[in-house]
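User: Teach me something about this protein's shape.
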Amino acid sequence: MFYTDNKLQFPVRVETPDPQFARALQQAIGGVEGEIRVAMQYFFQACGARGDPKFRDLLMNTATEELGHIEMLATAVALNLEGAPVSIKDEVAADPVASAVLGGLNMKNLLSAGLSAMPVDSDGVPFDMSHIYASGNIAADMTANVAAESTGRVLATRLYNLTSDRGMKEMLSFLIARDTMHQNQWLAALEELGGPKGVFPIPNSFPQEQENQEFNYAYLGFHQDGSTPAPGRWSEGPSVDGKGEFVTALMKPLGPEPALGPALPNSGAQREQM
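Assistant: First, the predicted structure itself:
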């Protein structure tokens, strides 16, 4: 169950409406790094979270907060579109704001939403939920959430640097701060689940003796000239999960070239393939 008091989590104000920035903000709503993505990701992870109920609570609380962030950003888009023209005339091109609308704004915000936000990215592509990761494995989900908040914070900092509007900078400063917390809370959840040595490899329920022991901690080089790949923490020494030793090896083909049988009749293949 969800509740609302119709108030924003943080004040949203725009000193100088900017239709082009409204378009940029759409990426933070409906882009793959945006708030719809994380809200739905955390929601569906929560719905399938088995085990200790505190993790479901953590996920559902954060999903609810992200809905509030969508509300903030949608308000910001609408405020940045205020004053934009609703008709195309010769004199529109001479007006800086109108020119920006015609030259940079996704016209869907006018034609389909009446100068309001939409569940689309900055190019007007609808968010289709294909980037929602809810695996049913709590450690895998928390790891995915760290990545989601990382790319989301990258986007928010780019938007912060893109605008000179003080109101928008204040709002984005708040959202960046929340991304900082969310990155850390997912990392803290992984730590509580056992940290790298307890969590990885995911799933930790699969017996490692059943995986190929020659390749489970091998950093493989695929350079055509046979040279050894550049070394790093990942190429030698104890593995991060504490269950093996990193080694570096040059990969050579272990199998033959694939040989497929002839195409089936009536499969649409050429006669020469049958």
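Now, about its shape. Strands lie at 218-221, 237-238, 245-250. The chain is about 45% helix and 5% strand. If you'd like, I can walk through any region in more detail.
User: That's plenty for now, thanks!
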